[in-house]
Specification:
The chain is an all-alpha fold. The chain contains 3 helices and no strands. The protein is flat, with a radius of gyration of 13 Å.
Length: 64
Amino acid sequence: MNARDYAKVADEVAEYANLTPQQMARRIKALEKAMYQAAKDLEFERAAAIRDQIKAPPGRGLAA
């Protein structure tokens, strides 16, 4: 990881930390829609990356 990657992760952590539960639910629903569309388009690596975002957003694990 380079400095740009670390900065992106830090931005994502800050963004998720400021979401209300309702906003988080909407974000997850949008990610699920994108994941299913990626799978439908046979973009399985992209779908898996989105799935991983849903399972554990930066700084806040939903599975816990």
